[in-house]
């Protein structure tokens, strides 16, 4: 080793802002002992930015909080500390983009650890590709699942992915409607357990308040208090300017609270789940005949418009695939099985053709510029190479078809006739 003085350690720079009188006693001393270089003067135009901002406030006054966090998406991360014992204040700050937030009473070692974690998040570029992969994976899952899975299955897959990505102890989505006194639990992630049920909103005022105010709130969990578990975050999901559900998330005991980036990911994913559930409804808000996926409805609308405009034809096929019993399959195995079948169908069809899940073990195929005979040949080829089962076909133009619902009615009747046949088991709408 060569002689000389060792290089000094680079201490994270922390800028203190907000109300000085709202700072917990001993804050500066605790931060200094934790290794932070603290200051209260904003850096000049040529100075490096701080690694984090710590803002202390007397209370969660909405207008002021909104102004402070107007640029929260821009680095450095901002941590908010409230002097008041307001359990809703941290959730409000997190919803506006704070990287972390706490309310009195403040445990200074915990606060220092949270700030250090936020600084590490910012200084560790290795996490950025991971988060990008998670987002890309979720986005791909949504696009794939929308056409191949039932709405509840999409929501379940999304919630499970989110729970595992954020290492949550509990993550569930509760679907609600205007004026509802009960919510429908669509998906639940709790110690690898998934279940569906009803939730009495009257017994959970924090959820009702989050729906009313459209604010992210914190709900204490009395079942786990005293063992280091944090509150359950209640994140309302707004779709078409209406709160259609709430996402409930609780971290594992002693885990850091969710930061702004994590809440942003959760919000995006919850909206995707809400859209998937909304996909089982027609544009008017009415359930369609078979709760058909929205992409299938849209594709048929497009094909009808194109066929009418350019005097073309197309066929809609319902394929009832022979598959192993799904009664005992767990949710993820069922989802994976249907995805694999849908992917195999797409590989066997032409690029312009469209494949969508239609029901339990059923798939809808839209075959542009294909008549009934061509659709029959496609079904026979698919059945020979991939899967058995019955099929129903309706070809457009058809004298009884004016809207997509007419196509569904005819093809379902054709599939029923195909099931009753022997031999080809392919029914064609007259």
What does this structure look like?
This protein is an alpha/beta fold. Helices cover 39% and strands 23% of the residues. The strands form three sheets. A six-stranded antiparallel beta sheet has the order 8-7-6-11-10-9. It has a five-stranded parallel beta sheet with strand order 2-1-3-4-5, with helices on both faces. The longest helix has 22 residues, at 127-148. The chain is elongated and about 85 Å long. Residues 1-9, 124-130, 191-195, 223-227 and 280-291 have low confidence and may be disordered.
Shape: elongated
Total of helices: 12
Name the helix and strand elements from N-terminus to C-terminus, one letter apiece: EHEEHEHEHHHEEEHEEEHHEHEEHEHE
- Into which percent range does the helicity of residues fall? 25-40%
Main sheet specs: 6 strands, antiparallel
Give the rounded overall mean pLDDT.
Answer: 77
Query: Ranges with pLDDT <50 over ≥5 residues?
Result: 1-9, 124-130, 191-195, 223-227, 280-291
CA-based gyration radius: 27 Å
Describe how the helices and strands are arranged:
Layout: E1 13-18, H1 27-33, E2 37-39, E3 52-57, H2 62-68, E4 78-82, H3 89-95, E5 100-103, H4 108-123, H5 127-148, H6 151-165, E6 168-175, E7 182-190, E8 197-200, H7 205-213, E9 217-219, E10 232-239, E11 242-251, H8 260-278, H9 294-310, E12 314-321, H10 331-348, E13 354-359, E14 362-368, H11 372-385, E15 389-396, H12 404-420, E16 426-428
Parallel strand pairs: 1-2, 1-3, 3-4, 4-5, 15-16
Antiparallel strand pairs: 6-7, 6-11, 7-8, 9-10, 10-11, 12-14, 12-15, 13-14
């Amino acid at each position: 080793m060569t002689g000389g003085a060792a290089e000094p350690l680079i201490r994270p720079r922390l800028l203190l802002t907000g109300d000085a009188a709202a700072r917990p006693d001993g804050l500066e001393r605790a931060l200094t002992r934790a290794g932070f270089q603290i200051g209260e003067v904003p850096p000049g135009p040529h100075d490096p930015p701080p690694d984090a901002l710590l803002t202390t406030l007397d209370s969660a006054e909405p207008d002021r909080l909104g102004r402070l966090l107007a640029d929260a998406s821009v680095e450095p991360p901002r941590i908010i500390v409230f002097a008041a014992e307001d359990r809703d204040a941290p959730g409000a700050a997190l919803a506006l983009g704070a990287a972390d937030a706490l309310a009195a009473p403040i445990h200074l070692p915990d606060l220092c650890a949270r700030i250090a974690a936020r600084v590490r998040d910012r200084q560790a570029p290795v996490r950025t590709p991971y988060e990008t992969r998670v987002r890309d994976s979720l986005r791909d899952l949504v696009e794939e699942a929308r056409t191949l899975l039932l709405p509840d299955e999409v929501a379940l897959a999304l919630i499970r992915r989110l729970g595992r990505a954020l290492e949550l102890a509990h993550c569930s989505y509760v679907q609600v409607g205007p004026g509802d006194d009960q919510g429908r639990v669509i998906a639940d992630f709790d110690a690898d357990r998934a279940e569906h049920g009803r939730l009495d909103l009257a017994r959970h005022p924090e959820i009702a308040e989050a729906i009313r105010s459209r604010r992210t709130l914190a709900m204490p969990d009395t079942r786990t208090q005293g063992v280091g578990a944090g509150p359950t975050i209640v994140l309302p999901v707004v779709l078409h300017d209406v709160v259609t559900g709430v996402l409930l998330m609780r971290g594992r005991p002693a885990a850091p609270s969710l930061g702004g980036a994590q809440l942003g990911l959760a919000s995006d994913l919850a909206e995707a789940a809400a859209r998937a559930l909304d996909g089982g409804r027609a544009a008017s808000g009415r359930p369609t005949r078979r709760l058909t996926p929205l992409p299938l409805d849209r594709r048929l609308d497009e094909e009808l418009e194109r066929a009418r405009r350019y005097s073309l034809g197309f066929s809609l096929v319902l394929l009832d695939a022979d598959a192993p019993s799904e009664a005992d399959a767990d949710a993820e195995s069922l989802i994976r099985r249907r995805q694999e079948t849908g992917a195999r169908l797409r590989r066997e069809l032409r690029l312009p053709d469209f494949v969508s899940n239609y029901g339990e073990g059923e798939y809808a195929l839209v075959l542009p510029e294909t008549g009934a005979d061509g659709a029959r040949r496609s079904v026979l080829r698919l059945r020979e190479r991939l899967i058995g089962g019955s099929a129903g076909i309706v070809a457009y133009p058809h004298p009884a078809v004016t809207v997509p619902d007419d196509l569904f009615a005819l093809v379902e009747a054709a599939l029923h006739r195909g099931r009753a046949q022997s031999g080809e088991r392919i029914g064609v709408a007259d």
